[in-house]
Design brief:
By secondary structure, this protein is α/β, with parallel strands linked by helices. It has helices at about 5-15, 20-30, 35-45, 65-80, 110, 135-145, 165, 180-190, 205-220, 245-260, 265-290, 290-305, 310-325, and strands spanning about 55-60, 85-90, 115-125, 150-155, 170-175, 195-200, 235.
Length: about 325
């Protein structure tokens, strides 16, 4: 395998629209090696601020709801309208090598081969929240490479997928028709992070079920309370086989994009702050897990079995030892 080009060369390649350079840059920011992280920091220095802001759409939903199929259909429509589309598809991490387990690129063959699109499967690195550890940085790289519409597809693991709301400008929740996800999603709280809820597969024999599920959402308590100021949560049917329904959803997303333009600078600052805190949490957890004091206290706690109770007291002792050691 060829060595990774220098940060300067990667930046130049990305400005030329070289997708291989973008892929290598994302691999660099996903790496946990200190040397790669230092190189990634230099890369961002070379790139500087983006020429124009991108719009970031988070797409979440349970496995099998049709996220990849929907994203490909929407992405192709956006490309046809002159947009440059990047897709970051977050997959579960392989327990063997830490890489992407599924590889959503294989499920978006048409979009991944479109000259105006870039599709990247990325591992979640076992991070809860539905996104990957380096997703925010990957989004900024896609933006720097000139992609003006970025779709972030979450892992699809359920209610813990709240972090996508921290890095996306709009969150779209896809729900299966008649699959029991309707009111259950309201109870789980995932609905609190969605700005648009779309019931998928609203065509053919499933149309009636889809309409019933849509009605469940529409009449659920507090369904219209949106997390975005001055906005109301919207509920729409969608089908990749129904051009009119897909067009209606596309129009709502682009209308929101236009209305949100003047809020983007504040939104970006908030997103960068979240990115910093997330990186800090990861760094602290990595340090803690590898610290000998933590390992020793974990073994001591385990040795108390079966009499031991909650680990809270042992954790407090561990933290006291760590803080004393770092003073």
């Amino acid at each position: 395998m060829n060595p990774t080009p220098s940060p300067h060369a990667l930046a130049e390649g990305m400005r030329r629209g070289d997708r291989t350079a973008l892929a290598r840059a994302i691999t660099l920011v996903e790496s946990t090696r200190e040397a790669d992280q230092d190189a990634a920091a230099v890369l961002f220095d070379h790139l500087g601020p983006p020429a124009a802001p991108s719009f970031r759409l988070g797409v979440t939903g349970a496995p099998g709801v049709g996220k990849s199929t929907f994203i490909e259909a929407l992405g192709l429509r956006l490309c046809q309208q002159g947009r440059r589309v990047a897709v970051l598809a977050i997959d579960p991490s392989s327990p063997a090598n830490g890489g992407s387990l599924l590889g959503d690129k294989t499920r978006m063959d048409g979009l991944s081969h479109h000259p105006a699109a870039y599709v990247r499967p990325s591992p979640s690195a076992d991070l809860l929240g539905g996104i990957g550890a380096a997703t925010s940085a990957a989004v900024r790289l896609c933006e720097a490479a000139g992609y003006d519409f970025i779709l972030i597809e979450t892992v699809g693991i359920g209610q813990s997928e709240r972090h996508v709301a921290d890095i996306a400008d709009l969150v779209l929740l896809l729900v299966d028709p008649g699959g029991g996800d309707g009111l259950q999603a309201v109870k789980r709280g995932l609905i609190e992070y969605a700005d648009i809820i779309a019931v998928t597969k609203c065509d053919g024999e499933l149309r009636t079920q889809a309409e019933h599920t849509l009605a469940e959402f529409t009449h659920a308590p507090s369904s219209y309370v949106s997390r975005l100021p001055g906005s109301r949560r919207e509920f729409l049917p969608v089908s990749v086989h129904d051009a009119a329904l897909l067009s209606a959803l596309h129009d709502r997303v682009t209308a929101f994009e236009q209305s949100a333009l003047h809020h983007l600078p504040d939104r970006r600052r908030a997103q960068v702050a979240v990115e910093f805190k997330l990186a800090l949490e990861q760094a602290v957890m990595k340090w803690l897990k590898g610290h000998p004091v933590v390992a020793a206290h974990a073994q001591a706690f385990a040795a108390q079995w079966p009499q031991h109770g909650l680990p809270t007291a042992m954790v407090r002792q561990t933290m006291d030892r760590l803080l004393t050691a770092t003073d």
